[in-house]
Amino acid sequence: MTGNIRVAGEQKQGLARAGQIYHDRDIRMRQLKAEGRKVLGYLDIYPVLEMLTALDLVPFGILGDIKEPISRADACLPTIVCPFLRSALDLGLKGRYDFLDGLVAAHTCEVGEKWAHIWRIYIDLPYIHYIDTPHTTHQSAREHLAVLLSDFQGTLESFTGAKLTPERLRRAIRMHNEQRALVRGLYDLRKPDPPLIAGTEVVQVLVALISLPVEEGNELLRQVIDEVKQRHDGPKKKPARLLLWGSVVDSTDLIAMIEDLEANVVMDDTFVGSRAYFSDVKLTDDPLEGLAEHYLVDIRNPRTFRETALDEANRKDYWADLESRHGYLKDYAREWNVNGVILQTLRYCDIQGYEVPGLKDYLEHIGLPCTYLEWNYSQAALSPLRTRVQAFLEVIG
Amino acid sequence: MVEEKKKFINRLKSMYALRANIDKMYARTVEASKAGNPTAWCAVNWWEADPILKAMGVEVVYPENYGAVCASAGVAQDYLERSAAEGFPTYLCGYARNCIGYAARMKELGEIPPEAPLGGMARPVLLLNSSALCDARYKWFQSLGRYLDAPVWTVELPHPGVKESQADGAHEQNIRFMVGELKEFIAFLERLLGKKMDWARLDELASAFIEVNRIWYEINELRKARPCPMHSRDFWTCMTASLYPSGDPKESLKLYRDLLAEVKERVANKIGAVAPEKYRLLFAELPPWHDLKIFDEMAERGWSFVVESWAYHPPKPIDLSHVSDPLERVARHTYRWFTGYFANALQEDEYMGYFAYPYLEWARDYQCDGAMLHPLLSCRTATNHLVLVQDRLLSKLKVPSLVAEGDIVDFKTFDHPGTMRKAEAFEEIMDHYRGLRRGEGLPW
Ligand code: SF4
Ligand code: SF4
Fold it and tell me: Is there a single domain that holds both residue A259 and residue A366?
C-alpha cells in the first residue's frame, strides 16, 4: 500500500496533505471504498482500532463539524446533551458519512453510549458493534473487557469472513504503537521555544490521522516531522506556552482563537489530541489482554474511575488523590515548559465538568495558573471566549 | 366553618407509612455517626451494594433522595448557588450540585448545617457510587474529595447493547463480571471497616430485597386496571423504600404488602386514583419535585398518571430461589432490572432497551393516551432518550407527548403556568390520536 494520495491529479505531502485531508476528510475513504476496502466508522478513543486494522478494515474517526448548523439531530437527540455528539449524529443523518460500511462504538461516556444506540435506530449499517467498556480499573473490569473484546472479534470475523489470528493482531498492534510513537515525536516538536509546529497544525495532522488507514497515517506523520524539522517559518515566540485540557477539540477553531493572541498552544490533554497516543499497547501472550489493559487502565481520561488514594487510616488524602489522577499533567507541563493551562469543557460534558474545581486546585497547588472556559461547540461562542483568554494571558504575563 | 380543599388525587392511605419509614433514615444515620458507627453516602445502585452495606452494619443515606428533600424543603437553591461559587459548572446534575453545596457548607461549619432538612446527612466514612446509567454519579462523588475525606468506591454495572446482550454467553459473562465486582467491593469494605462480612445476614437481606421488589412489581402491574388505582405521585413516594432501602427490609416488606392489599381492594371495587379518569398518561422521567402540585391540577382535568420513571421501577420478577450464592442472586436481580426489556426490544428493532423501549411496552400495556416528558436541564440520563421516546410513541403507537422542560431541583427552570396552558391544548391532541388508534384497530 502506498502512502501517497492522489487527489485530482495533484499529490500533496506532509502538512499540505494533512491540511487537505482535514478539510476534505472522506477523500481517501471514498478512494479506498472504490478499491474494495471496507470502512468502519468509530467514535472517540475507546473502540479498539487494532482489531479493525488486523482484519484489513479501515477505521474512520467520526467527528462533528462546528461550522454546520445542527438540524436533523434535533429529531432524535435533545439539545441539552453534548453538542459534539449532536453534531456527529447530525452529519450521519445528513449523509456525510454515507461511505461507511459499519460503526464501532464504545461506552466512552454516558451520552456517547446512548448516541450509539440512537445511531443504530436511525442509521442502519451492515455492521454495528458496541463495546461496553467498563468504568473502573478493577481487576474484574479488566478481565471483563478482555472477554468483550473476544466477542467483538467474533462479530468482526463473521462480518469479514476472515480469521483474526494472534499474529495478525500483534502486527496491527505494532503498527498502531508505531503511530503512537510518531505522534509523540510530533509532540516533541512543540517542546522548543518557539514550538516548531503550531497547535492548529497539530490538530490538522491528528484529524488527518483518523481519516486514513494506519499505515498511511504513519507515512504522513514521518513526512510532517521531516518537513517541520527543516522549515524556518514556524510559529513565532510568544510569552504564553499553554496546555489545553478537556473535552473534545476536533477542529482548529478554538486553538486558532488562542494562538491568534500572545500564546502558543504547546501541549494538550484532549481527544483528538494526546490522549489516544501517550501510552503503548503491551504485546501480551494473549493480545486481547494487553488491549484491555491499555484501553481501560493506560489511557488517562476522566471517564475511567480510578481508586481513591488512601492514607494509613483509610481516609482519602485529597492531595494524594489529585496527584494520582492528574500527576501526568505536571510531567507534561515540565517537559513542554508550560506556563498556563486552559481548562475547557463543552457545555453538558459531565465527565470533564466535575473535574474542573479539583483540577484547578491541583494546578494552583503546583503553581500553574489556569482558567476555565465552557463553550457550546459553535463558532459564535468563540468571540466571548477570546476576551476571557486575553484576560488570562495578561495574568500570566 | 373552614371548607376542606377538594383533593383531586385519591392518595393511597398505606403510602404515608412507607414515606415515614424512609424519612427516618436521616435521623438513623446521624445517630449512628454520633455513636461512632460507620455511615455511608450512597448513590442509587439498584440493590447491588445496598444489601452488602447493610450486612456490614453500615447506615446509609442517599444524596439523590436528599436532593429531592432539599428541593421540597426550599433550601436547595442556596446549595446550588454555593456549588456554583465553588467553581462547578451550572449545567451539572441538580442533585449533585445540591450535595456539593451541602458538603461545602458542612466542611466550613465543621458540622451538619443547621438549615438542613430532616436532620441532615451525617459525615460519612464511605462514598459508594454506581456506574449505572449516569456519569454524574461517580464523577460527583469523586469530586466530593474537596470536602470529605471518605474514600469512594464505584460498583460496576454492565451496560450491554440490546443486540450484544443477546449474544451467546453474554448474559452469564455479565453476571460473572458483576459477581467479581461485588467480591472486590466486599474485600475493600472489610479492609475499610476492619471487620468481616456477615454472609448469613447478607443472604437474608438479598432475599428480602428481591421479595420487596417482587411485591412492588405486582402492585405496579395492578395499575393497568381501568380506572388506575394508584397515581404516579404515590409511585414516587413509595418507590423510595425500594430504591433507597436503608430501613429494615422486614418493615418495608410489611408496608408494601399493606400497599398491595389496598391497591387490590381498589381494583376490585373499581376505585380510581383520579375520578373520572378521562386520560391515562405515562410520565418520563423524573418529576419536578418542587412542583408536584401540578399533578393535582392535571388530575382536576381528569388526567391520571398510570406509569412512569422506568429507572425507578422494580425488575420484572425472575425465579432466583435456586441460586444459593447471595452475590449471584444480587447480580442476577440487578441485571434483570437493567436488561429485562432487551429481548422484546430487539424483536422490535429498538436498540435502546432500557429507558426508551420500556415506554413503548408500557404505553400499550397500560393503554396510555399520552405521555408527559420532562427533559431536565441538568440531567443527561433522564433526558437523552426523550426525543426518541416521543418519536417512537407517536410513530409506532399513535401516542402523543407533551413536553415540559425543567429541572429536578432548580425550580426557576420550570414554567408551571405555561405547562398548564399546553396541557389544555394537549387534550384535543390526545382525543385526535385516540380516534386514530381506534381507527387502526388498536385496543385503546
Ligand atoms: S465531550 Fe464529553 S460528553 Fe461529549 S463525547 Fe466527549 S466525554 Fe462525552
Ligand atoms: S441520573 Fe440525573 S439526576 Fe440522577 S444522579 Fe445522574 S444526573 Fe443526577
Answer: yes
Which domain, by its residues, includes A227?
Answer: 197-396
Same-domain pairing of A206 and A327: yes
Contact criterion met (CB below 8 Å) for B37 and B17: no
Q: List, as own/partner pairs, every contact residues B430-437 make where C-beta atoms lie below 8 angstroms and the sequence separation is at least 24, other chains included.
A: B430/B279, B430/B369, B430/B370, B430/B400, B433/B369, B433/B370, B433/B394, B433/B398, B433/B399, B433/B400, B434/B369, B436/B398, B437/B397, B437/B398, B437/B399
**pLDDT tens, position by position, A388-397:** 999 999 999 8
Sheet holding B370-373, edge to edge: B303-308, B279-284, B370-373, B401-403
- Is residue B166 within 8 Å of B340, Cβ to Cβ? no
Residues 100-129 of A with CB under 8 A from B: 107, 109-111, 113-114, 116-118, 120-121, 128-129
List residues near ligand 1 (CB under 6 A).
Answer: A 82, 84-85, 108-109, 111-112, 247-248, 346, 349, 351-352
Task: Name the DSSP letter for residue A280.
Answer: P
Kindly report, residue by residue over B352-389, the tens digit of the pLDDT.
999 999 999 999 999 999 999 999 988 999 999 999 99
Tell me, yes or no, whether A18 lies in a domain.
no
Q: Cα–Cα distance between B344 and B411 in angstroms, integer?
A: 37
Total structural domains within chain A = 2
**With contact defined as beta carbons under 8 Å apart, do B211 and B242 qualify?**
no
Q: How far apart are CA A112 and CA A125, in angstroms?
A: 18
What is the per-residue pLDDT across B14-64, written as a single tens digit (0 to 9) for each? 988 887 877 788 898 999 999 999 999 999 999 999 999 999 999 999 999
B382: CA distance to ligand 2 center in Å? 7
- Sign of the Cα pseudo-torsion (A200, A206, A208, A211, in order): negative
Which residue on chain B is closest to A360 by alpha carbon? B87
Domain match, A129 and A233 both: no
Q: Say which residue the cell 373552614 belongs to.
A: B2
Residue whose CA is at the smallest distance from ligand 1 atom 2: A349
Q: How does pLDDT run across A45-68, given as a tens digit for each residue?
A: 999 999 999 999 999 999 999 999
Q: Which atom of ligand 1 is nearest to the CA of A248?
A: 1
Confidence of residue B289 (pLDDT cuts 50, 70, 90): confident
* Per-residue pLDDT at A3: 43
CB-based contact A64:A91 (threshold 8 Å): yes
